[in-house]
Amino acid sequence: MNEPLLELDGVDKTYRFFKLSAVALRLEAGQIMGFVGPNGAGKSTTIRIAMGMIRQDRGTVRVLGQPIPAMQAVAKRDIGFVSEDMRLHAGLTLDWHMTFVSSIYPGWDASYAAQLLERFNLHPEQAIKALSHGERVKATLLLVLARRPRLLLLDEPTTGLDPVARHEVLAELMDVVRDDRRAILFSSHNTQDVEQISDYITFIDRGCIIDSSDKETFLDGWRRLHLDVPPGATLPELRGVVETRTSGRLAVVTTRAYSPEIDAVYERAGARVADVQRMSLEEIFVANVMHNRRERVA
Amino acid sequence: MNSSIVLQLILKDLYLVRWIVASSLAAGLVAIAVMPLSGVAAYVGGVSLICTIVILNITLVMSTVVQERKDKVLLFILSLPISTTQYVAAKMASNAIAFIGPWVVLTLAVIAMIGSSAIPDGILPFLITVLVYLLMYYCVLLGVAVVSESSAWHAVVITIGNISVNFLIPLLLSRPSVYTHRTGAEAVWTGDLVSVIAIEVAAGVAALVAAYFVRSRTADFV
């Protein structure tokens, strides 16, 4: 097994009104992990703990083999961090920022930076305060990508971007992991973006990791079944079913562990399987979160 | 890489405040230059010098520490290969250079002006005590701004700092040791003035050391 670029184990962080509990994450080279959760779920806190900006109360964090926060300065040489609320110096130009960052990172790739300027249609002499939100995100991403970091930690980078800017940013990110020494942790509450670029997905809600797997496992396993249940028939309780809603003869069953055998089990119980629908990542995310919340209450 | 990045951060902050520092220095030197012209000019020049140093103090701390945090530029800086302790060290060093540099120049200019003008040398210990007080005020404000994100605390320190200068001056002038020697031909460094200066220096250093100690051990930086 490869040494992970990012590894969190049993990480706790308690605030007055929020608690991050037993967070465990593992990200290997070549992977893009979508880190999905509602607002306030703990995505930013988790990523900032990985960056050493917030100190965990318990648990271990290792990034690029370095313990965090103790060796954050060493680890951050090869981490690119972009956050939706990160800002550059408003009164200075992009060119100034490029010179500043390149003076810190010996591996700064000037020709790649020039390519990114072209692709993102950015003008280096423009002051940061004159940039639109989308341009500012792209400028920040340029400053990160031109360093050629091995690990990208991206905290909601596509929030507030128009569709074209989002496409440009996501395309660039997918380009980055063509080099299989690199990895990306990409947090978002926009499941479309995550579905587009991630090969692994972790769901977080209310400070707890609720599910984590590769994207295909999620998309293959989750199904919504529409059943016709005649009077007198009773639906059996099956493993993997997270929700059953009934209205008269109609029942809608959501399962996380679909196989064709499930259809046969329901048919034997007297129900008719009218339809089996694949679920989008957004539907899977919502169903997963709601199921987890009900389980916690129970 | 790390010592060089600390240096880069210091240079970055100095670049950002270059116009504030240059204009304050120029304004302070003009204020000192007009002081020997007449009694009224000495008063106007003295008040202008104090105001210039106070404005430099507040502007520096607000723009490089408080605003950086409020504008979320801190996230960008902390994403660079630097520990939080090194960040605090760089921030305090750049601020110290940006303030203490002009402060030293202006203090030396005051000494030179007193030595070369008709203004009696006896006033010098009083002026130096006031200037060191402004240095202490700066250290305390910087320390509080580094440690606390609360605008209320910043406002409290600024208010107390500004008002206290108005009390300090008459308080010092009412001291017989200052009052007696202020018009004399020679600067007389009495024991109580030296003690006040020593307390001011100690308080300033203590504020900076405490701020560095507390902030570099802060668990959550953002």
How is this fold's topology laid out?
The complex is a heterodimer of chains A (about 300) and B (about 220).
Chain A: E1 6-14, E2 19-27, E3 32-36, H1 43-50, E4 58-63, E5 66-67, H2 72-75, E6 79-83, H3 94-104, H4 110-119, H5 133-145, E7 151-155, H6 163-176, E8 183-188, H7 191-197, E9 200-205, E10 208-214, H8 215-221, E11 223-228, E12 241-247, E13 250-255, H9 260-268, E14 272-278, H10 281-297
Chain B: H1 2-16, H2 18-34, H3 39-70, H4 73-78, H5 84-116, H6 124-147, H7 151-173, H8 176-181, H9 191-216
Helix pairs in contact in B: 1-5, 2-3, 2-5, 3-5, 3-6, 5-6, 5-9, 6-7, 6-9
Query: Could you tell me the mean pLDDT of chain B?
Result: 93
User: What would you call the shape of chain B?
Assistant: elongated
The arrangement of helices and strands of chain B along the chain is HHHHHHHHH
Whole-number total of structural domains of chain B: 1
Proportion of residues in helical segments of chain B = over 70%
Number of discrete helical segments of chain B: 9
Mean pLDDT of chain A: 93
Class based on secondary structure composition and strand pairing of chain A: alpha/beta
In short:
The complex is a heterodimer of chains A (298) and B (222). Chain A is 34% helix and 29% strand.
Question: How would you explain this protein's 3D organization?
Answer:
In chain A, 34% of the residues lie in helices and 29% in strands. By secondary structure, chain A is α/β, with parallel strands linked by helices. Chain A folds into 2 domains: 6-216, 3-Layer(aba) Sandwich (Rossmann fold); 223-278, Alpha-Beta Plaits, CATH 3.30.70. In chain A, a hairpin with a 2-residue loop joins strand 12 and strand 13 (250-255). In chain A, helix 4 runs antiparallel to helix 5 and helix 5 (133-145) runs parallel beside helix 6 (163-176). Chain A is elongated. Chain B has helices spanning 2-16, 18-34, 39-70, 73-78, 84-116, 124-147, 151-173, 176-181, 191-216. Chain B has one domain (2-216). Chain B contains 9 helices and no strands. Chain B is mainly alpha-helical and 222 residues long. In chain B, helix 1 crosses helix 5, helix 3 (39-70) packs antiparallel against helix 5 and helix 5 (84-116) runs antiparallel to helix 9. The chains are: A alpha/beta (298), B mainly alpha (222). Chains A and B meet through helix 2, strand 6 and helix 3 of A and helix 1 and helix 4 of B.
